[in-house]
Design a protein that fits this description.
single chain; binds 1,3-dihydroxyacetonephosphate; 14 helices; TIM Barrel; two-stranded antiparallel sheet; eight-stranded parallel sheet
Length: about 325
């Protein structure tokens, strides 16, 4: 087994998942402002340190994705953030793209940037403890989107990123996110997500990326937020599995979904259903940002010194997601708190 495959399996196995805490400063500022907390370095660190020192880290969280600011911060006791994360047996991840910018030739679609100077940046992140990375491509969905141009350019960038990350001894998370916004049907989401993912694997193959040392982070197959169509979690699971079975090569060890605007419970219920029906060889788990942090953030904002209360909420969410990653979640357990 290769070293990269070992890292990927360590992050994803046994119901463990990923805590995506890599919001850029601009995004974190939006999140903090939405709960009336000032966004400064100290508050951003305080909230994140509170989560990373929760008891559920050990049993539930196989990896934490950080933003550049956080990976270089120290906790109140003087430990570095990577040391704190490693102390619970969890791997340190780092977001390495520099964000999605308007794609030349389009007014609305985006291309994710960050390849320039990436090789050097990766060496530094490895030295301070990172063992996996993230790069997110975003795709609009409508009758005419995503365009062939957005599909091709983002797949190309994801593949070049992944090759550089493996060269630096880390596991790349490949995140092609077809957004939920729009009035599309789940069937449209299925066909467009499939095209997007297949193109990524075409480019990954061309760039000689070892798929056993990668993690795919896709969206679930859902109907658009403005669509009148209402589908059940069973249908979501069936369509999502159909999509992944047909577009992801068997060598990929695991898939860690993003929550992408689903509520905490929706993201948990849908993941549970996916695992109950999982007829693939892939581990199916979570790499959630909002669906792990939302309630904890709300609670913390009322009293930023109430560490234990905040952790209590985060622990419950992490446990529910870890149960869902094994198909063992239930509404009773969800409401047992
Ligand atoms: P959400 O789960 O909030 O979609 O965040 C996951 C993520 O890392 C998006 O890039």
């Amino acid at each position: 087994m290769s070293e990269l495959n070992k890292i990927a399996l360590k992050i994803l196995s046994g119901g463990k998942g990923i805590l995506a805490a890599d919001e850029s400063t601009a995004t974190m500022t939006k999140r903090l402002n939405s709960v009336n907390v000032k966004s400064n370095e100290n508050n951003r660190l305080n909230f994140r340190e509170t989560l990373f020192s929760s008891t559920s880290m050990k049993e539930c969280i196989g990896g934490v994705i950080l933003y550049d600011e956080t990976i270089k911060q120290k906790t109140s006791s003087g430990k570095s953030i990577p040391e704190l994360i490693n102390s619970s047996g969890s791997e340190v991840g780092i977001k390495v793209d520099t964000g999605a910018k308007v794609l030349a030739g389009s007014t609305e679609e985006k291309i994710t940037e960050g390849l320039d100077g990436l090789r050097e940046k990766l060496k530094d992140y490895y030295k301070i403890g990172a063992r996996f990375t993230k790069w997110r491509a975003v795709y609009l969905i409508s009758d005419s989107f995503p365009s062939d141009l957005a599909i091709a350019t983002n797949a190309h960038a994801l593949a070049r990123y992944a090759a550089l990350v493996q060269e630096a001894g880390m596991v790349p998370i490949i995140e092609p996110e077809v957004l939920m916004d729009g009035n599309h049907s789940a069937k449209d989401c299925l066909s467009k997500t499939s095209v997007v993912i297949k193109k990524c694997y075409e480019e990954l193959d061309l760039n000689k990326v070892d798929l056993k040392g990668t993690i795919l982070k896709p969206n679930m197959v859902l109907s658009g937020t403005n669509s009148k169509e209402k589908i059940t979690s069973e249908e979501i699971a069936e369509l999502t599995l159909k999509c992944l079975k047909n577009s992801v090569p068997r060598e990929v060890p695991g898939i860690a979904f993003l929550s992408g605007g689903q509520t905490e419970v929706e993201a948990t219920l849908n993941l549970n259903e996916i695992n109950l029906k999982n007829n693939t060889n892939f581990i199916m788990t979570y790499s959630y940002g909002r669906a792990l942090q939302q309630s904890a953030l709300k609670f913390w904002s009322k009293d930023v010194n109430n560490k234990l209360g905040t952790q209590d909420i985060f622990n419950h969410r992490a446990k529910m997601c870890t149960l869902a990653a094994q198909g063992k979640w239930s509404e009773n357990l969800e409401n047992s708190k």
